[in-house]
Amino acid sequence: MLSIFFIPIVFACCRSNEHPIEIKILANYPSASGIEYFDNTFYIIGDDAKSILILNNDLNAVDSIQLYNSNEYRLTKATKPDLESITTFHTTNGYRLLILGSGSLSPYRNTGWMIDLKTKQAVNFRLDTLYQHLTSLGIREVNIEGICALPSGLLLANRGHMGYPENNLLFIDSSFYFNLNNAVARRIIIEKPLPDTSAFSGISGLSYSTKTDRLYLTLSTEQTSSTYTDGPIGNSLLWIINDFSEKMNTGKVAPDRIIELNKIDTGFKNQKIESICVLSERTNKTQLAMVADNDNGSSTLFKITINPN
To answer: Which of 12, 123, 189, 200 qualifies as a cystine partner to 165, CB 3.0-4.6 A?
Structure first.
């Protein structure tokens, strides 16, 4: 079902310095948890939102795709699907948008959506079997917070927390694109960077560049010891892993570079960055988009240019 609406979006600030940044408040779209960029279009999902928000290249709302019928502005926490991750992948019949629930509370969050980007038709499916399979790989608590497409398949990110301080990546072969619930996953451990002197940061989003073979990950600190409860927000980080396709085959990866986002710009202070996508890459210049959810019923979008080296 397609629903069209236009959300007032307010410019928060725009700066020009070593790291050009643009920040916009999505005033009437709640809890942004995932962002994807495809064909000059942004697709945003919120973990308690009823629809996918669609923005054009100028960050103006132009469309939406309704997923749930509800009179509530934000879906109830106890039963929300907790859609946390979003990506696009190519098939012989065109491109699909794939969205996954976190799996952190069964059965409500063991669900996913696949959307045909040409027709906007959305199909819902279950993930119970897949998420049970992840526990057999040693994932003590399932909490899928990010997804991205690789040339050979899909990469999922499982977020830890202070009570379970472990982040993991999970690779699923492309042959399971249309049968995710029965997919066989391979676990990739994300090693903690050394020296490990800071509070645990949980992975919140990821994006892969085929052009440069880089994996970009966002992480955030939150004072919580479970996958269900929220807590005070700390700092958000950007990790960069180079030569990822080679390193993932070893079963363990670690960041080659760590960027503290609040040190790049004060606009990131107390922002819980939830997701990331690559917009463009040139020599020593990469443009990224990120979204933040601060548990207040609105969302924030960031566009920033960095030197990834």
So the answer is: 200
